[in-house]
Amino acid sequence: MTGLFVAKNSQENETQSLKERLDGESDATPSPDERLAELRFCQETGRLSDWQRPVAETMRRAGLGEGYTVAEWAEIAWYGPLDSWLRPGSRVSDIFLDGPDRAMVVVEDGNRTDTSVRVGDEWLRWTQRQLLLRAGFVTADHPDDWRSDDGRIVHALYGTADRRLRFAVTRPPYTPDGATVAVRVLPARWRTIDNLVQHETGILPREAAELLLEAIRRGVSLLIAGGAGSGKTTLMAALLQAIAAEKRVIIIEDARELPLPPDGMAVEVLRSRSSFASCVRLALRQRPDLIVLGEVRGPEALAMLEAATTGHPGICTIHAPDALTALRNLERFATLDGLASPGIVRGLMTSGAVPLIALHIGNYGGRRRVGQMIEVIVTSGSQAGETLPYNTLFAFNPAANRLERKYPVQGAWGKGRL
Fold first, then answer.
1. Nearest-angstrom CA–CA distance, 257 and 270
2. Closest by CA position to 402, among listed 393, 410, 411, 394
3. Which terminal CB of the chain, N or C, has fewer other CB atoms within 10 Å?
4. Cα separation of 20 and 393, whole Å?
């Protein structure tokens, strides 16, 4: 009994000591950073660890009174049950809360792990609100007012908080079993091309990396294909960092993610309340040398091709299982809004005005790397629906377990040189 009494007194003294350090003897309001330090101190000492109790009860048990107002929470870069996996040095890339009272799952160094941490409905909805507050999607006055670009009430949103947490949140009736949270933790420092070229363990060989950079310099548009989590954005960021000092770059994304180049600007489609295609066309007025599209999945494909014909090449990512399918998807997306026929789109893709390379990154030889790189061949006779004429630049050789050069560049931009 005495030991329990001493432990309780020690815990109360720690909390009081912390409050004295933060608040002093005055009535001064603690800063957001001081509040963040207080919350993390409580986590580190184990007083904030039960995420299944109501929020107010959890805060009281931690010695934090009733917690903070919604407006105060909006100023604090703290994410409750997620925060322990977001600290500097963490190797966690993804965090999933698939419903109330279900175990949190994290992906660390590519391995999916059940953390056994369970988050109750109230804390799960608090985490959603915190992400949306920090991303600017809701206000402290109306924190549950989720709205789409056109002002409709919605039950699923995605964006980026603090420029480091790319999230998707849902609530009933979108997910009838309860609220959910999925978070991708963006790297504090993006990997460079040199990081990606690492002899036997690299994502791509030096020769392939140098060809891609030279292609970008010479006005070739680049399509980076792969599945979710394959490394498309990582590769795009590395190429962007390598070329950014030479180009004026306009980056267009749903929500901010890629590193900002020294000469250029970033456009957030969700905040702009415009379509991807409109943002691409508006970017042409910014006099870009290069337009970077976070992901192409609709009519913005046509806008990108049209921009390339006017001397404004692009880099974009696309979901596809291989490089050739990526080109077919680009062709299909460009016809979705009916502004161009399949024949016109095929004509753009196979014209000399739009030199185009597609590459695929995925699992090759048991690990993640670039496994295919092809260029579209310029031709006037290809018809929509036929296989696109292409030349294989690099292909993965399973026997040698590496990406190998196949054929030289056929496009005018590199023929006889690359």
1. 13
2. 394
3. N
4. 66
* CB within 8 Å of 89: residues ≥ 6 apart: none
Q: Which residue type sits at 278?
A: S
Q: How far apart are CA 275 and CA 282, in angstroms?
A: 11
Q: How far is C-alpha 261 from the chain's CA centre?
A: 17
**Dihedrals phi, psi of 321, to nearest 5 degrees:** -85, -10
Question: What tens digit of pLDDT does each residue of 357-390 get?
Answer: 999 999 999 999 999 999 999 987 666 557 789 9
Residues contacting residue 30 through CB under 8 Å, at least 6 positions apart: 22, 23, 38
**What are the contacts of 269-272 at 24+ separation with CB within 8 A?**
270/137, 270/149, 270/158, 270/159, 271/136
DSSP track, 188-237: SSPPPHHHH--GGG-SS-HHHHHHHHHHHHTT-EEEEEE-TTSSHHHHHH
- Say how many Å lie between the first and final Cα of the chain, rounded: 80
Contact 366, 381 (CB under 8 A): no
Amino acid at 406: K
Q: How far is CA 153 from CA 136, 142, 177, 292, in A?
A: 16, 12, 19, 30
Quote the CA–CA distance of 125 and 119 in Å, as a whole number.
10
pLDDT in tens, 135-177: 988 999 999 999 886 778 999 998 889 988 999 999 999 999 9
Quickly state the pLDDT bin for 104 (edges 50, 70, 90): very high
Helix then strand then coil, in percent of the chain rounded to 5, is 35, 25, 40
* Placement of tokens 């590395």 in the chain: 238
Angle between helices 342-349 and 323-333 (to 10 degrees): 130
Taking the C-alpha atoms of residue 72 and residue 12, their distance in angstroms, rounded to an integer, is 24
